[in-house]
Design a protein that fits this description.
The chain is built from 15 helices and 8 strands. The chain has helices at residues 2-9, 16-21, 34-43, 65-68, 79-86, 88-91, 97-100, 108-113, 117-123, 125-149, 151-154, 169-177, 189-192, 235-247, 255-264, and strands at residues 47-50, 60-63, 159-163, 182-187, 201-205, 217-220, 269-276, 279-285. Helix 5 crosses helix 10, helix 9 crosses helix 10 (125-149) and helix 10 (125-149) runs parallel beside helix 12 (169-177). 20% of the residues are buried.
């Protein structure tokens, strides 16, 4: 990630030397291996090779659309989300997947750490902050698209509760866009602790499985896309389904499965709206 941000500084003259300089803790004896790392980053689409000029003998490297999402000054920067995904606490559970299939734990995260993710975050401020920052960066990435495509859903409402709203990234965006809408960010007490609302935005701590604050509408986020066939899932969806199996208790669902849930809950109607990538908006009507 340091290499990517240094790339932006030298975007017109990016050579391997600039990338090496971006790693201040690099052991000088390992610098000769940096080209191997660059090579796979080019193959993966994070850098692109480019001729920088007739007077420059070696090719340079420029950022791609994928690597620009890692720039610190990019409003849509997903680096916090990536750091969360790569943190050892989040990767170790994959090594316990086999053991999880043989026990009664909720998921392999519990098998690896002795407690579920939410309880771990409650007792580990460092992971809690990492998780909240990661979720905030993910929300920023989809906020503008969600509000634009679903503007009609929010118009006419007097109150809204963002269930599992985290630090309020999406809630703030909605409150700013609709100043007459009273927006409540609702999440576990340790997530919203110390958060101060203002104007038409407030924070409430609690457990959604026990009680949710009353409002005209409830907003609940889940990164998933609806498909009508079990084997019609994209590669991204299949991988995300595995992620939820290992770290939480959720899963990717077909439209038929969603429909059964909605009918069992006594809802009168629903509507699916594709938002961005694997994200969809599901409107539910009581």
């Amino acid at each position: 990630m340091d290499m990517v941000n240094t790339s932006e500084e030298h975007v017109n003259e990016l050579l391997q030397a600039h990338l090496v300089a971006a790693l201040p803790t690099l052991n000088p004896t390992k610098a000769c291996n940096i080209y191997r790392l660059i090579r796979i980053l080019v193959r993966s689409g994070f850098f692109a090779r480019q001729k920088l000029g007739d007077d420059v003998q070696e090719d340079g490297y420029v950022l791609t659309n994928a690597s620009r999402l890692l720039l610190n000054d990019n409003p849509l920067c997903v680096t916090p989300h990536l750091k969360l995904a790569l943190d050892p606490i989040m990767t170790v559970p994959w090594h316990f997947l086999g053991a999880w299939f043989s026990n009664n734990d909720h998921n392999s995260f519990e098998t690896a750490h002795g407690k579920i993710l939410w309880d771990y975050c409650r007792h580990d401020p460092q992971l809690n902050n990492l998780f909240n920052e990661g979720m905030s960066s993910d929300s920023r990435f989809a906020n503008s698209v969600l509000i634009d495509k679903c503007k009609g859903v929010f118009e006419g409402l007097n109150s809204l509760v963002d269930v599992g709203g985290g630090t309020g990234t999406l809630g703030k965006a909605i409150a700013d866009e609709f100043p007459r809408l009273n927006c409540t960010v609702f999440d576990l007490p340790h997530v919203v602790a110390g958060r101060q609302g203002s104007g038409n935005l407030r924070y409430v701590g609690g457990d959604m499985f026990e009680q949710v604050p009353a409002a005209d509408a409830i907003l609940w986020k889940n990164n998933g896309e609806v498909n009508d066939e079990a084997w019609n899932l994209t590669e991204t969806q299949v991988l995300f389904d595995m992620l939820m199996m290992a770290l939480s208790t959720g899963k990717e669902r077909q439209e038929e499965e969603w429909t059964k849930l909605f009918v069992a809950a006594g809802l009168s109607d629903y509507k699916f709206i594709p938002i961005l990538g694997i994200r969809s908006s599901i409107e539910l009507y009581p």
